[in-house]
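Q: What would this complex look like in 3D?
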Amino acid sequence: MQVKLKDIAEKSGYSITTVSRALAGYNDVNEQTRQHISEIAATLGYQPNLLARQLRSQRTYTLGLIIPAQDQSFSNEFFSQLMVGIGDAASLEHYDLLISAQVPGQDEMAAYRRMVGGNRVDGMILARTRQNDERIAYLKKQKHPFVVNGRGAPGEANDFPYIDVDSQLGIRAVVAHLAERGHRDIGLILPPLKIAFTEYRHDGYREALSAARLSYRADYVVYGDLLRSGGYQGAQSLLSRSPQITAIVACNDLMALGAMSAAQTLGLRVGQEFAVAGFDDIPAAEFAHPALTTARQPIYEIGQRLVKMLVSLIEGKPVKQTQVLLPSTLVIRASSENRKE
Amino acid sequence: MQVKLKDIAEKSGYSITTVSRALAGYNDVNEQTRQHISEIAATLGYQPNLLARQLRSQRTYTLGLIIPAQDQSFSNEFFSQLMVGIGDAASLEHYDLLISAQVPGQDEMAAYRRMVGGNRVDGMILARTRQNDERIAYLKKQKHPFVVNGRGAPGEANDFPYIDVDSQLGIRAVVAHLAERGHRDIGLILPPLKIAFTEYRHDGYREALSAARLSYRADYVVYGDLLRSGGYQGAQSLLSRSPQITAIVACNDLMALGAMSAAQTLGLRVGQEFAVAGFDDIPAAEFAHPALTTARQPIYEIGQRLVKMLVSLIEGKPVKQTQVLLPSTLVIRASSENRKE
DNA sequence: TTGTAAGCGTTATCAC
DNA sequence: GTGATAACGCTTACAA
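A: Here is my prediction, written as C-alpha cells for the whole assembly.
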C-alpha cells in the first residue's frame, strides 16, 4: 500500500510527530534526525496523502472553476483561452485547478455548493456574470474567497473583486468606427438580458449612435445566445425585417462569425458593401474570412490576473486593486473595410 | 462554521451513524427517520465535506490531467479541444477534473506523484506520449488507473489502455495525396524523436513515397518542436537547402501553419505552386489562409472516449476494447490545390 | 432499526 | 528535541 508517516516512523525509530515535522522542515528538529528521516522517506518513496493533509489543515491549494460544457460543434475559444491563462498562472503560484463542466440540464448551484461547501477548493473563479448573479450571492454569503471575470449589471452593487473589460467603451468604439466608415444603419445583436454585460454594451451602442447623430431604433436590436447559432439567427431576423442595414455589431466574436455566415448566405459581401464586427478577439476572429473587426479583450491576461488576485485574497496578501476595469482595443480588420469612399 | 453530521445528529436526536446512512440513502433506516433527518439537513444547509469523505472512502470521483502550460502567444488548440471533450464527458459521468499546468522548468514527474501518490484522483489521463514514457512506467508501477491518448513508439510494449489515431496511415494518405497532385519533392517536418508518434509518421511518409515511386531523401526531413515556430523554422531550413521542394508535410497543424507562413514569406504561393499539409484538423486549419489540408483526428471524441474508458476501468466495469486505434480522415483544402494539371 | 467505535493519514497542542 | 494524543469530518464493521 501507500507509504505513510507511520512507516517512516517505525523504520526510523522516531515518532510520527517528529517525522511529520522533520519533513515539513520545522526548525525544532535536530538536523541529524531530519537528515536521517528524509533519507528514509526518500528510499521508501514517501508521498504525503494530500487529502489527509487538506482535511486536517483546511487548505487545499486548489482553485475551483465551473465552466459551461461546450458540445462538440461549438467549442468556445473564449473559455479555452481564459482557462489557459488561469491554468498557467495557477501553476506558477503552485495551485491546482479543479474544474467541473456544467452540462446544461444540471443544477449549477449544486456544483458550486459541492466545490465550496465540500471544502474542495480554497477559492473560486467565476466567469461571465449574470444579472443578479446567484453564484456571487452564494459566495458572498459563504465568505469564500472568489474573483470574478465581469461585473454586475449596471446599477448592481459591485462589492466583490473582479476584473472586467469596459464593454461600454468597447462597443462604443466599434460602432463609432462603423459610423465613421459611412454606415448609418447599424444592427446590434445582444446576448440575453440576464448576461450582466448586455446593458453595458447596449449603452455603448446607444452612445456611439448619438455621438454620430444617428437615431436609435429598437428594431435594429435583436437578442441571441452567445454562440455562432445565436449570431446567425440574429442576423437573419435583423436583415429580413430591415434589409437597409449595412453593418451588424455582435456582442462577441462567436456571434459575429455566425452573423457573417448569415449575411454571406444572403449574398452580402462582408468587407465590401456590408460590415460585421464582434467583441473579444478570439483566435478565430483573425482567421475568419474576411478577418473580423472586433474589440479585443486580453483574455489570457485576464485569466492570469484573476489567479494572482485570488491567491492574494486567499493568502491574505495585500492586493492593490480588487476591482479592475481594463480597456478593450479596437482591432480593425477586413470585415469592416471599404464602405467609406 | 460548517454544518456537519454531528450537528444534524444533535438536532435530530439520532446518532452520527444513522444520519450518515439516512443521507446516503441506505435502506436499513426507517423511512420516518430518513425524512426527518433529511429535512433537518436541508434546513441546516448541510453540505458534506468531500475531503473527509474522500479520505475515508479512498474515492475521489476526480480525474487528473496534466497539460503543458501554453504561454500567451501559442495557445494550443489541440489540448484545448481534448480538454473540452474530457471535461464534458467527465461531467456526464459525475467526475470532476483536477488539472495541473506543467510549466516548462518544473519537475513533471513530481506533479504526477502529487496527484496520484497524493490520493487526489481516481485515475489519470495522459496525452502526447513519448518514447519510453516515464509517466506510463510510473502509473503502471503504481497500478493506478490511467488511459492514454497515444501509443508507445514503434517496438515498445503497449501494455496499457490507450486511444490513438493511426498516424502512419494518416501521414501516408496525406503524402499520397500530394504525390498524386504531382508533387515529387515533398519535405517533412517531424517533431522531436522523443515524441512517440514521430516514427510512425516518419514511416507513413516513407511508405507513401515508395508507393509513389519517389525516393526517400534524408535531406527532405527536418525536426522541429510541435508549435508554429517549429514549423516556421523547419520550413525555412528545408527550403533554403532544397529549394526544389514543392510541398511540405508537417506533423501537426500548428507546425503546418508555421510552415505556411515561412513559405509565404519566401514568396511562394501556397495552394498554387506550393503545397502545405498538416495533421490534427484543429479549428484554425479550416480558417487558415489558404485553408489547410490535413489528416483529421476526432480530438473531442477522443477526449470523451478516454473518459468513458477510464471511468469503466476505475469502477471495474467491463470495457470491450482497451486499445483503440482510430483512422484519421484526409481533409483536402486549398493549401494543396492546383498543382496537377 | 439504531448506536458504538475504529480508522482514513495528516497536523497541532501540549507536555516532557 | 521529541512524543502522546486529539482533532479534521466522514464511512463502515460490528453490536445491540
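A: To summarize the key features: The mean pLDDT of chain A is 94. Chain A touches chain B through 50 residues (CB under 8 Å).
Q: Very helpful, thank you.
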